[in-house]
């Protein structure tokens, strides 16, 4: 439930930016920092969650995250200005970073192997629902009440979660031993490691989130962020591999299955979140859908995943996880290829069916993929492994959104130029069309404006189709990459990756 709250809050604020900007006397561009600040803080703290959980104690850290997230949500709802809201979103993002990985680690250690698959399926149902229904819920709350309530709604939920966590959660003996040993030997904090994580992850998130807006390499700001990211990331890898008590246990990536599974997690997040951005945007800009109608198209897909999760949770104990994951990737790739056949006249029901088919395939990826990742994880390393795989998921999602946005923009420019070049004013067919449009619209100027609009829409649709081809190819590569993982028994011992 805590992970659901965090996932929901990540998605719910997107649709309220215009209202937030108007209420706090800011521009829409300035208001986007409400999202960026949360993502940057989340990206910085997420790699540290395994170390913090083991050092502080998982239960203490988990409850602390819920309390801090709840207080930050309350203060966000009461924020009197945009700078105050941005600062509080930084606190909220830092606190929220621990909710998903720690929730997964708790579930992994709370169930025997034969029951973990179903437990993680239930967890997957919760976290898939967040981004699916978040935008629609956020829009409804904002319309019916005000944007403040998208944050205030977390307060009663947080209070209930803290009460339940205090009463029900217990740290496993192995983790208590690790925490006790660290305290007895003296907690040695790797301050340089913390600084390098903040620099590398923070600058990387800024690059991915703001790169398109600042025109990538044409911006001195983005170039500076790239240099900081590359330098600090190289130092971070060296530091964590050589330090006696690393904050991020990168040595886990020495396990072939775990390393490849992390690549697959990142690779899956690219089309998953990329398409979550593309479809609503396409429907609103090209097909004339409202934000609510676009949400109605997207939401049924999440229901398919929710229904399929328990089924896959049972299958993963009986079928080779590589077969399930590869099949899921193939289905998603086929769904992407089907999207390349659409046009501007596509029916509402067809869009719903295509989205449901894509999410049907997704259900076969989550649990099996994480079963592959966690099959060979050493005892006592669950928190560290979960932190790494959640970091890769977040990075993959951020890369996916940036990649599809960049590709869409460039493809649109190319197709618009090509279509415009192929219009010959002396062509009799063109002249007849313009004459007919001028008669219908009343004047030649209106006809030219309508023709420009048609070119713009067609170029836009062709650009979306190009990006769907790109995502189909990427997902097909992931389907083949699965088979690089060595076969192991699929005990369903893995936490389910979120989003």
UniProtKB/TrEMBL annotation:
Gene Ontology MF, one: transmembrane transporter activity
Domain Major facilitator superfamily (MFS) profile: 1-490
UniProt key word Transmembrane helix: yes
Predominant location: membrane
Residues that span the membrane, as ranges: 31-49, 61-80, 86-108, 120-141, 147-169, 189-208, 220-238, 259-279, 291-311, 323-342, 354-375, 461-485
Annotated coiled-coil segments of the chain: none
Keywords linked to the UniProt accession: Cell membrane, Membrane, Transmembrane, Transmembrane helix, Transport
CC annotations in GO: plasma membrane
InterPro entries in the record: EmrB-like (IPR004638), MFS (IPR011701), MFS_dom (IPR020846), MFS_trans_sf (IPR036259)
UniProt cross-references to Pfam families, sorted A to Z: MFS_1 (PF07690)
Localization per Swiss-Prot or TrEMBL: Cell membrane
Superkingdom: Bacteria
Record protein name field: EmrB/QacA family drug resistance transporter
Native source organism of the sequence: Solimonas fluminis
Organism taxonomic ancestry: Bacteria, Pseudomonadati, Pseudomonadota, Gammaproteobacteria, Nevskiales
């Amino acid at each position: 439930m805590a992970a659901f709250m965090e996932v929901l809050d990540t998605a719910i604020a997107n649709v309220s930016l215009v209202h937030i900007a108007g209420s706090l006397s800011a521009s829409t561009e300035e208001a986007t920092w409400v999202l960026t600040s949360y993502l940057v803080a989340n990206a910085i703290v997420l790699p540290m969650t395994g170390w913090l959980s083991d050092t502080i104690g998982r239960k203490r850290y988990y409850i602390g995250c819920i309390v801090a997230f709840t207080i930050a949500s309350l203060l966000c709802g009461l924020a009197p200005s945009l700078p105050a809201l941005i600062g509080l979103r930084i606190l909220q993002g830092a606190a929220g970073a621990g909710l998903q990985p720690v929730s997964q680690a708790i579930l992994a250690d709370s169930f025997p192997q034969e029951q973990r698959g179903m437990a993680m399926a239930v967890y997957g149902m919760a976290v898939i629902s967040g981004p699916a229904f978040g935008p629609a819920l956020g829009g409804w709350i904002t319309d019916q009440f005000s944007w403040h309530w998208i944050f205030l709604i977390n307060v009663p939920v947080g209070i209930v979660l803290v009460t339940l966590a205090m009463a029900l959660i217990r740290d496993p003996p192995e983790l208590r031993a690790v925490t006790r040993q660290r305290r007895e030997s003296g907690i040695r904090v790797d301050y340089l490691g913390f600084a390098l994580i903040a620099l590398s992850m923070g600058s990387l998130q800024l690059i991915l989130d703001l790169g398109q807006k600042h025109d990538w390499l044409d911006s001195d700001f983005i170039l500076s962020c790239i240099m900081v990211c590359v330098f600090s990331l190289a130092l971070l890898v060296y530091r964590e591999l050589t330090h006696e008590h690393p904050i991020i246990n990168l040595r886990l990536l020495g396990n072939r299955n775990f390393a490849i599974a992390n690549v697959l997690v990142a690779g899956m997040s690219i089309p998953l979140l990329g398409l979550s951005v593309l479809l609503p945007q396409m429907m609103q800009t090209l097909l004339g859908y409202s934000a609510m109608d676009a949400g109605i198209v997207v939401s049924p897909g999440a229901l398919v995943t929710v229904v399929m999760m328990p089924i896959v949770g049972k299958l993963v104990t009986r079928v080779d996880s590589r077969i399930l994951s590869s099949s899921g990737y193939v289905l998603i790739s086929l769904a992407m290829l089907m999207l390349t056949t659409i046009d501007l006249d596509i029916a509402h029901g067809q869009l719903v069916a295509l989205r449901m088919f894509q999410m049907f395939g997704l259900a076969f990826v989550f649990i099996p993929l994480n079963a592959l990742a966690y099959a060979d994880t050493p005892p006592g390393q669950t928190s560290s492994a979960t932190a790494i795989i959640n970091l890769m998921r977040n990075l993959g999602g951020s890369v996916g959104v940036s990649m599809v946005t960049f590709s869409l923009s460039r493809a649109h420019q190319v197709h618009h130029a090509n279509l415009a070049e192929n219009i010959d004013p002396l062509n009799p067919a063109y002249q007849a069309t313009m004459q007919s449009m001028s008669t219908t619209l009343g004047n030649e100027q209106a006809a030219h404006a309508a023709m420009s609009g048609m070119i713009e829409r067609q170029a836009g649709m062709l650009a979306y189709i190009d990006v769907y081809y790109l995502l189909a190819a990427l997902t097909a590569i992931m389907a083949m990459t699965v088979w690089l993982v060595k076969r192991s028994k699929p005990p369903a011992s893995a936490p389910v990756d979120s989003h």
